Amino acid sequence: MNSLPKRSLWAGRTLALLGIVLLALNLRTAVAAISPIVDLVSGDIALDPVGLGVLGMLPPLAFATSGLLAPTVAKRIGLETTIVLACLAMIVGSLVRAIAPNYLVLIVGSILALAGMGFGNIVLPPAVKKYFPDRIGQVTAAYATILALSASIPAILAAPVAGMSGWRVSVGLWAVLALLALLPWLAVWRAHRADVRAAASAGEVPEAPGEMVGRMWRSRTAWTIGLTFAVSALNAYALFAWLPEILADIAGVDTVQAGALLSLYALIGLPFSLLVPILAVRLRSVSPIIFAGVACFLLGYTGLLLAPTTLTWLWVLLAGSGPLIFPLCLVLINLRTRSPQASVALSGVVQSIGYGVGSLGPLVVAVIHTSTGGWTAPLMFLLVTALGGIVTGIILRKPRYVEDEI
Asked: What is the pTM (predicted TM-score) of this model?
């Protein structure tokens, strides 16, 4: 679909590429920075189960709320300025969490850091479209893969760093990574401001931001991509929260095995993050990719329901392959828009719907499990939600631009 002539990946946009990569590396760190060291944090700050539950709910809620706010902010102050502010929020939020004397301050710091990450989620696809319109698939694949890695890095480093230097150093360390992302974006921001001033001096009128943030909610394509995103997010969040307990109860695995299978569930998404955006750019219809993700969900859940103790690793691998839909939705934000302004608006709608619905997954699974006392009904619920991808896949079979709908 992309007929733009390709330039060298680095030519004239090295800082933008570096900024995109480093920003992606920061967009999940606060999510996983505390959970591996919660016992150490509890030594200074009282954390009861309710308090931990609130911390666990913040990421998807912050990401969904950012989808409502970020497009309007980006429209008013510009894409580059919004990214700079997102980086600053991540830096300050991580530092506030590190020095928090009580639970309230810890929550405030978490909200600030997660809001920065949520805004980063929204503006990253438009940044790719603006600076790399000729390489949308490749750059999206790169940042989607790094995004997947960014959640695993704190899980690996948090406990060792906390053991050597204390939990506050471990939590505050991620401010340094956010600072590294800020530096190239400051340079890009300054260059952008200079271009705007030069255009104004030459009497050129800069392109006005599209007045489409509100109207984007009337786009059928926007809602369909958002609901496709929601299928992936709901199932992924639910299994990240409950898979170890599900496997312990229905497959009889121990704690070590459950942790290893959860790691398998998370890591299997990495090759898909790399391959799916590149493949999506080349295909006329993305429906087969969505159907493949749905098939993986269905096969994985069916295996866990009918033969949980046989080939347990295979069912987990298949269920973990289902979220290949996620990187597809990221690249669709750019493939279904003509301008960075439309991409910002579409990104906000898609991620608000996706993360908003996704945040309900762990809670609904918990309620069903508590009501039934088993895992058959929760797994059936997840299987049914995955079927929704068949409907959205059919609707998205033909390429449409959201501008034509609004």
From this structure: 0.83
